[in-house]
Amino acid sequence: MHGIVFIQDLATVMLVAGLTTVLFQRLRQPVVLGYIIAGVLVGPHTHPVVFIHDEETIRTLSELGMILLLFALGLEFSLKKLRAVGGAALVAAFAEIVLMIWIGYEIGRFFGWSAMDSLFLGAMLSISSTTIIMKALEDLGLKRERFAQLMFGILIVEDLLAIVLMALLTGIAGTGGVEAGQALAAVGRLGLFMAVSLVVGLLLVPRVVDYIARVSRNDVLLVAVLGICFGFCLLVTEMGYSVALGAFMIGAIVAESESVARIERIVTPVRDMFSAIFFVAIGMLIDPKLLLEYAWPITVVTVAVVLGKVVTCSFGSFVAGNDGRTSLRVGMGLAQIGEFSFVIASLGLTLKVTSGFLYPVAVAVSAITTFLTPYLIRSSDPLARFLGRALPNRVTGVFGAYTEWMGSLGLQGQGAVVMKMIRRLVWHVIINTALVVAVFIIAAFAYRRGFLHLDLLSDDPTVRRSLAWSLAALFSLPMIVAAYRKAGALGMLLAELSIPDRFGARTYRIRAVLGRIIPLVAMAVMGLLVAALASTILPPREVALVLVLVGVGLTWLLWRVLVQVHARLQAAIRDTLEKPGQDHPE
Amino acid sequence: MHGIVFIQDLATVMLVAGLTTVLFQRLRQPVVLGYIIAGVLVGPHTHPVVFIHDEETIRTLSELGMILLLFALGLEFSLKKLRAVGGAALVAAFAEIVLMIWIGYEIGRFFGWSAMDSLFLGAMLSISSTTIIMKALEDLGLKRERFAQLMFGILIVEDLLAIVLMALLTGIAGTGGVEAGQALAAVGRLGLFMAVSLVVGLLLVPRVVDYIARVSRNDVLLVAVLGICFGFCLLVTEMGYSVALGAFMIGAIVAESESVARIERIVTPVRDMFSAIFFVAIGMLIDPKLLLEYAWPITVVTVAVVLGKVVTCSFGSFVAGNDGRTSLRVGMGLAQIGEFSFVIASLGLTLKVTSGFLYPVAVAVSAITTFLTPYLIRSSDPLARFLGRALPNRVTGVFGAYTEWMGSLGLQGQGAVVMKMIRRLVWHVIINTALVVAVFIIAAFAYRRGFLHLDLLSDDPTVRRSLAWSLAALFSLPMIVAAYRKAGALGMLLAELSIPDRFGARTYRIRAVLGRIIPLVAMAVMGLLVAALASTILPPREVALVLVLVGVGLTWLLWRVLVQVHARLQAAIRDTLEKPGQDHPE
């Protein structure tokens, strides 16, 4: 009976994992380590006893664990938090990731591993572990300190960049090499997909979830939320992206619903159960013999992770304007790798581009660095004091001056307001352009698949294509108008700022021209993107010209209606993102 | 990729189930129906679209759902609650189950189905659905009323009897027929197994669970509890009993730990997820064509369930001493079948003794009766009023008199105390005897498997057997002494009650003899059971005699120590069963 074998395997996993984790909990060590040890114990490398009879099923469930882990991470993630942490986290995280990928790649090449293995090693080393850090900070009672907030910000940015990184790795693995153009295209497509899903998702999902939460008991809500989560993951894999990306994104989208606290409460146990299986499954991949064989690389990589992360993260935080002590604490806290490294390692195995030894090496490094994390955090203060004494006075003086200067810098008064306005306008233009392009791509897709049933209207493909194109144009008109308006505002603002008054009478004319150029450039870029990405429904040139002219006329006539439609859509999204008690810029 | 197919299936199940259940929740219909409809929709009978690609995995997960469903039911179940409800529930539940099995069996035979099919049909009809009733009562706001309490008691007893019933059905399915002797032996073995697991479980599990709960976070606790649950289920299946029995029992055992509320909170979402899959998997078995084909039996069975249950449960409650209105409400509320019927139907399919059509018929009947439940509960009051008017005055008068008489009856004062004492003493004797027999069986098992390593001491099998036997006797001495003492007390009490004073001087002597006979009978029964069930380690007669004599001598010497050991064990169990704020008889 298959069912009994399955229950037996599950019982073994849960019992052994329960034992090891209770032990680790008692020894005040990270629970994750306990799961991994349990995996080693029940894994296929502990001859001659066979504990797990059907590894396939356990592995399938572990995939579910990864999805739920990232979904829960997404639930905790919030677009607002990201905004609050601001630039400092971005600078630090970016510096860390780029430097760690480079260090990892160099180490891999040094040991004579393939370029792909080295690249994946670098990627694995680049992302720190949110789970482990949260647990360590909680255990040490430091969760509310300033440096902890900054670390949390860095972790959020890292999680986001990790998603981009995974998409990039998938692309690179597919083409076999790193090409700037392809990479850029991949990032562009990913950005487009993320933007569209975020906008559509934010419009739909939180409303649906809140409705369900209002009318339903917990069990129905759980089933519906899991359905949405898995469903979106499927959609994402259909598009060729990793299931992890989907899980994280839909988590972040659901996080904007009002009932997120209730959802977190009911999703957590399910996540706990499956993430336990996930980590046990990781442990099952570890062959103790392999670890001995690779003891030397593991040591080197571990040292590289600890030193590299301490230096790069401290450096990043310091450059972003924190004092030396805080920066050092941040660096010491982030010096480990965790769940995302396993996800990236899984990705490499799934894509069949990395060697088998990479996974256990990553897990071993993660285990050691995880083990070290609490000690590193605790020793950061003594180290800061020691450095303060040991370094020459002049050096510390320069450091202190820099921090002070950065602290006094921060855009204030009118400058800050203008920067904020510019940033917001740029974002509006980009998002609306992306949405327009998405509408055309969807129209092209629907046309190719015959979903539009235009053949009922006409047999002539030219007419049909023109119709499809017009349809897409009609749907995207509100977004086009919005992009045009925001680009216009942006142009005027930039003209005002960049053209000084000293041109005298001509100042106005120059400003007016510049104020017009930017929206026109935006329209041109949009047009090119649409032409390139939705070429299947592009009508012949003369037809297109006529359609565009008709569209312009229509826009002129309907300007106020279109502005209203867009304002209403925007308000709907804003409502979703805005929760009571938090003010939110327009 | 197997993983993606699995996620796809899961996404389909969750999405469709989410949709249907939200709809049913909105229409204020039982959610369970929504799950089943979802199962029909995604099931293999909705040609030509294939929704589920790997039914096997979904079915495996659904088995997990059944385990978790019964485990959670066990968690809510409590030995104390059972005691509080008392005899009324037992009478009503027993009447209902026996009558419904008979009705079901007769219906099956009437339609010309096989004896086994008919028997399973009867069993399926006999157990009402706790989940559905709870939900209906909650929706109607009647949960706190007196009749609801009584219904809850009946449901608890039913759940217990269902477990026994399933063990019986398994036994009957194995032997192919119903033989009184075998059935009795099966019940005996089951009782022994349950008694031993309960005693050992209550001694160990709640302590372990409370320890884990004290030192651990929720995720570790969840994993450990699930490990214990699945592990015990495995043990139970190894013994040849159903996994459902194991899940329910370990749930009831864990329920005696102090941290049960926390455990319920973290287990509930996991149960919700998998029980959704369980009910969807049930729906997947339904072939709409088959339902049409069996429309006639379904109608008959449905009518039988509603009428049969209303009559038998009302009758049972009334006989147990409730007034007509309460009895009728209880009967109307219990008139449906639910999750246990599916479990029993699964059992039949797993044992390969029932036909394929039985399951969908049961599900259809359950769906219809579930749908009717809220309406039946609501219409019980009007019906009671109608009956009150329609029945001749003399009949209602007799009914009222009976209720009054039963109400005034209930053992009060000294009689009640004595009855309580007798009941407790009988239980003590039975439990201790069971434990002694269990120790000998375990010793025999260990001897056969060579776990005792007695071959290191002697080559002579007689010596080895004698040693094993002595070992078992030594371990069970505290229980033997306890059984003897309690049987003695029971004998004295019974003698006091049964031999009236009119025998004059001989009264004392007769009483003394009778007070001796009962413990001797108890010892004899115990000896016979041990000899029969642990015959492999029974030493030759003369050796046994010597050993028994040595044992008696030893017992005489160590009497006080043994009494103390037993008292301490008993106190440990009592502590487990006793929670603050509730007083508990010694």
Automatic annotation (TrEMBL), chains A, B:
Name of protein: Cation:proton antiporter
Source organism of this protein record: Luteibacter yeojuensis
Localization annotation: Membrane
UniProt cross-references to InterPro entries, sorted A to Z: Cation/H_exchanger_TM, Na+/solute_symporter_sf
Main location: membrane
Keywords: Antiport, Ion transport, Membrane, Transmembrane, Transmembrane helix, Transport
Record GO cellular component, one term: membrane
Domain Cation/H+ exchanger transmembrane: 14-376
Membrane disposition: Multi-pass membrane protein
Transmembrane segments: 6-24, 31-52, 58-77, 84-105, 111-137, 149-174, 186-208, 220-237, 298-320, 332-351, 357-377, 425-447, 467-484, 517-538, 544-563
GO molecular function annotation: antiporter activity
Family assignment from sequence similarity: Belongs to the monovalent cation:proton antiporter 2 (CPA2) transporter (TC 2.A.37) family.
Any GO BP: proton transmembrane transport
Domain of life the protein comes from: Bacteria
